[in-house]
Amino acid sequence: MSGIATVSVAATASSVPDYTISIGPGLLDDGALLAASLRGRHALLVSDANVAPLYAQRVEAALRAARPGLALSRWVMPAGEQEKTLTRFGEVLDALAALGATRDASVIALGGGVVGDLAGFAAACWMRGIDVVQVPTSLLAMVDSSVGGKTAVDLPTGKNLAGAFHPPRAVVADTTALRSLPPRELRAGLAEVVKYGAIATSLKPDDGAFLDWLEQHADALLGCDDAVLAEAIARCCRFKAAVVARDPFERGDRALLNFGHTFGHAIETEQGYAGTIGDGLNHGEAVAVGMVLAAGLSSALGLADASAGDRLRSLLQRLGLPVTIPDGLDPLALLARMRLDKKADAAGLRFILWDGRGGASVVSGVADDAVLAVLRGETAHA
Ligand SMILES: NC(=O)c1ccc[n+]([C@@H]2O[C@H](COP(=O)([O-])OP(=O)(O)OC[C@H]3O[C@@H](n4cnc5c(N)ncnc54)[C@H](O)[C@@H]3O)[C@@H](O)[C@H]2O)c1
Ligand SMILES: O=C(O)C(=O)C[C@@H](O)[C@H](O)[C@H](O)COP(=O)(O)O
Ligand SMILES: [Zn+2]
């Protein structure tokens, strides 16, 4: 991998801070970069049981060298979506208390999206808000979850139901960390990459050719080609940085980033978040299925051609991602789960639907029958 890319999140709302996403090889050892965003004397490194043994010591050594006197401690959780809970959230707060973290302390989230969301939420709540530095190690976290400030834990009743908007003070993505990522987790990250491609013409900056590029580079992405992955990460971060800069609290077009998620989150919840250690779908896989279902719903409602989802489905399949609802899930139960989707309001469900050509929009008033028909596979292209 060559070079370091930086993407700025230059917020338009005065209440939201600007920050920089640094992407490149070797950044986990860049103590100056990591320490540059630490304001106070205390830092808590939060990680999980897969990532900590691989990378925590390196990050700590780099930080200690760059910032002698830093009171740095480590809190490690078991890996997996089933651990993104209020219980673990409370444990992070306890670790901050044990550290004696003052209001200028920082949380350093070293891991995938589970660690990032949980640690970010704890940072949002400790003393009503301290800094979090996101140090993503999974592809999904580099392209999506470390950027934009959505933090949360899951509840048994629904995904990310308790959370806060809490933008990071910085994002530091060391692309060489992807070399240890299990192939299944690489593919999960590619699902969110495809999401940007699917809705690219509705996202600014206009990078409508991104889906073509993904099709051309699918094999290189799957093969973990350093340069191709680094380019994909930077392009996704540019999409996300732009949308969250203008709509940090999802009052407008940020909601488009939820393409595939109304269905996907329902699947994850209904499976008890068993995607990492059980036999369920993980987040990226559920979003892959969800995007195909959303494409089917778009066609069924006449918003896209009947065959619009074919291209999306075949790219996801090429990337080794699932495109159908796992056996045994009850359509009515999935529909009930969707009622707690955060885009829903008193008037009912809202879906991110698309035109099959890169354009997406938020659509309200979709009849339950139409959703159920897609969930039951009764529409031609669901
Ligand atoms: N906040 C947001 O905007 C946002 C966006 C997208 C997804 N998310 C959330 O992110 C989570 C999914 O993130 P994820 O896919 O990273 O899952 P994850 O955090 O569970 O990581 C996936 C697996 O890979 C392991 N891992 C991570 N980096 C590794 C590395 N470099 N080497 C070896 N193993 C590594 C982890 O230990 C875990 O077992 C979900 O909870 C989802 O809701 C949040
Ligand atoms: O950043 C966003 O906005 C997203 O929607 C990104 C999604 O990929 C991510 O999964 C997010 O956590 C979903 O948010 P939620 O509000 O639907 O819980
Ligand atoms: Zn997502």
UniProtKB/TrEMBL annotation:
Alphabetic keyword roster: Amino-acid biosynthesis, Aromatic amino acid biosynthesis, Cobalt, Cytoplasm, Lyase, Metal-binding, NAD, Nucleotide-binding, Zinc
EC number: 4.2.3.4
List of residues binding Zn(2+): 192, 261, 283
Cofactors named for this entry: Co(2+); Zn(2+); NAD(+)
Catalyses which reaction(s): 7-phospho-2-dehydro-3-deoxy-D-arabino-heptonate = 3-dehydroquinate + phosphate
Ranges of residues in domain 3-dehydroquinate synthase N-terminal: 76-187
Family according to the record: Belongs to the sugar phosphate cyclases superfamily. Dehydroquinate synthase family.
HAMAP family assigned: DHQ_synthase (MF_00110)
PANTHER family cross-referenced by the UniProt entry: 3-DEHYDROQUINATE SYNTHASE (PTHR43622), 3-DEHYDROQUINATE SYNTHASE, CHLOROPLASTIC (PTHR43622:SF7)
This protein's name: 3-dehydroquinate synthase
Species name: Montanilutibacter psychrotolerans
